[in-house]
Amino acid sequence: MGTRNAEDTLRISEIFLSLQGESSRSGWPTVFVRLTGCPLRCQWCDTAYAFSGGQQMPVQQAVDVVSGYGVRHVCVTGGEPLAQQACLRLLSKLSEAGFAVSLETSGALDIGGVDARVSRVVDLKAPGSGESQRNHWANLRLLTANDELKFVLKDRADYEWARQQVIERQLSALCPLLFSPVYGDLSPALLADWILVDRLPVRLQVQLHKILWGGERGR
User: Fold this and answer.
1) Model confidence over 161-175: pLDDT tens digits?
2) Which domains does the chain have, with CATH numbers?
3) In what order do the strands lie in the sheet with 9-19?
């Protein structure tokens, strides 16, 4: 029996059912497929457990596991899912199976190969993450109204940086924009006040799963 190639096999940290806590899909029962591994080390990362470990799984088996949960929405996340070659095949297979698929990606890797049926939630890294130099700005020209840009903000300096990006790059013309406070570091109410004062064309996002259940795993 031959060895599976990188396009057919995933390393998966976990697959689980929860409520989507972020993006415009917040609140929907969603199956999360969390892939192992990430080339970034954001200061505020809450999924460091996915940096290593996990189990090897054929793409079709992952799709079968997702199907067993009986819900329509699926979110492929990480880690950084696009760091695995087989992620693109997984996204296409899930779309072909009729799921409403979203991808959560750091924005450090090229999103051009992602199936057009997938909603790409691209995280632009602010300076407080320690990884802002990794932003792959060429991704911006690939975005459509089906995608979303997310800014996770640690403090006022991060907010000022994000506001500058929104205004100078006219990001609201590309896709919906999400501003999210780092859980436990920046008050959501304070971030809301800043957004209102500046009349920014962005949506405030709080992590619903943490409000409901607390902790880092969100379930």
Assistant:
1) 999 999 999 999 999
2) 9-213 (3.20.20.70)
3) 55-58, 9-19, 29-35, 73-77, 100-105, 119-124, 148-153, 177-181, 203-204
